[in-house]
Amino acid sequence: MKQVPIVDWLQRLPGGMMLVPLILGSVTGTFFPGFLGLGSFTTALFKNSALPLIGLLILATGAQINARQSTGVFKRCGVLLLTKTFIPAVIIILYGNIFGREGILGVSLLAAMIAFTNSNGGLWLALTGQYGTDEDRGAYIASGLNDGPFFILLALGLSGHANVPWQAIVGTVIPFIVGFVLGNLDKKFAEMMKPTAAITIPFFAFALGTGINLQNLVTGGVTGVLLGIGVTLVTGFLCFAGYRLFIRNSNPGIGFAAGTTAGNSITSVLVVVQADPSYAPFQAVATAQVAAAVLVTAILCPLMTHYMCKRYDAAHPPQEQRA
């Protein structure tokens, strides 16, 4: 039987494993809602699986974080969390204070907070493998920590922009802690959980898509492009500046490799709405906007990283860097 390289096609498209099933889920939910209501395993897997699978992915992410990292790795991790998560969160809180939850140009506070405050760990590993050092690659830990709803719920709750009960915040971090503890106690557990993302992402992406009307997907996609451009330029520059100020033995251009929105961040929209249902009116468009930002940053970020790393190398020859 002739083989169809479906997985290869999806992997060639930036964020394809998340975006394509999301769009297919949106098509199914818009035109074939009866299929999703068949019941039994069909409804459980294709419509109601998002939250359980997201919880499993968060646990698997925690299992990959190694507590025995070098000082240089933790220093870089701290710089990235400061410049990619904490400072952007403050900026978006100010955005919400000025423009309200609705935001401007159709970009809600919910979509902006989620798109700006997390990073794509896969792209970080790929780009640091080409332009960075081993310690830069180890700073993937930052993506493991911010690639989820915990910091988003914390920022929205503490700023007063969401009524987030403490149980919801604790509930998002417990699977991560369980995975972290088990992964560090038993390396075989961490190895066992490695394929979790590849297995779960297409299925919970489809389930998320079933709640998005195609009209919202198109509308949100247009504004999501602008959102993605802003994410790469603003957070990429902040991380570049953080590297320039605090990291001396790496090319600071690599900071732009964190100017991304992770595919998993699409799930955070649902988690925030579950924690504070008053954000429900923004859910459909925000999901589409974040999905568009994932794709745009996956394309723009490598271009900016290449340009900034080469430019810095030209201004600082290797001999000067070694000195």
UniProtKB/TrEMBL annotation:
InterPro entries to which the protein is assigned, alphabetical: 2keto-3dGluconate_permease (IPR004684)
Keyword Lipid metabolism attributed: no
What are the transmembrane regions?
A: 19-38, 50-67, 79-98, 104-127, 139-158, 164-185, 197-218, 224-246, 253-273, 279-301
Which GO molecular function terms does the record list? 2-keto-3-deoxygluconate:proton symporter activity
Q: Which GO terms describe its cellular component?
A: membrane
Q: Cite the entry's keywords alphabetically.
A: Cell membrane, Membrane, Sugar transport, Symport, Transmembrane, Transmembrane helix, Transport
The entry's family comment says: Belongs to the KdgT transporter family.
Kindly provide the name given to this protein in its UniProt entry.
2-keto-3-deoxygluconate permease
- Origin organism is Oleidesulfovibrio alaskensis (strain ATCC BAA-1058 / DSM 17464 / G20)
